[in-house]
Design goal:
The chain has 165 residues and is an alpha+beta fold. Helices cover 19% and strands 41% of the residues.
């Protein structure tokens, strides 16, 4: 894979002017850029532990995934997904079970009810929550994870805006 060292606009022009394969790459890049505002997903590392988190409207889930996890698909419902990994020799890391609590407030300071449930699939452990959102609603999240192997609680704060229309 080539590393981009020039302005992104130059790369788009070059990709666009090349073969059909490159046109597909351009389409994929544009699709990712268009989807970016719809979801927040990132991670934060604390020593040997990394918390991965993502917030998005549940209508983005594939129907079979929603059914498997008993999640209602709707533009007005959001999902928060959290996983905690401990560094390991494998690229993925080792899943960590923890007590995860989440607080979310909107810009007027109203507290959202965020109930977390644990999903343990053996090789993967993650925490999910469903909650209602309004169009263009902005929520400030505070995730707190505690476990006996952590020296202190791990805290992640992030802001997410949801688009329902």
């Amino acid at each position: 894979m080539t590393r981009l060292t020039k302005p992104i606009s130059d790369c788009f022009i070059r990709v666009y002017s090349r073969t059909r394969c490159n046109t597909l790459v351009l389409t994929a890049i544009l699709a990712l850029l268009l989807c970016a505002p719809a979801t927040a997903g990132t991670s934060q590392t604390f020593g040997d532990y990394t918390i991965h988190y993502s917030a998005f409207t549940s209508d983005l889930l594939q129907p079979n995934m929603a059914k498997m996890y008993k999640i209602v698909r709707s533009k007005n419902r959001a999902i928060l997904s959290i996983s905690i990994q401990k560094k390991a020799l494998t690229p993925v890391g080792t899943p960590v079970k923890a007590n995860v609590k989440v607080e979310a407030t909107n810009l007027t300071g109203q507290l959202k009810n965020i109930n977390i449930r644990e999903v343990d699939e053996g090789a993967a452990v993650y925490y999910i929550s469903e909650f209602h959102v309004a169009h263009e609603e902005i929520l400030d999240f505070t995730l707190t994870a505690t476990a006996k192997e952590f020296e202190k609680p791990l805290v992640v704060k992030f802001r997410q805006q949801f688009y329902t229309k």
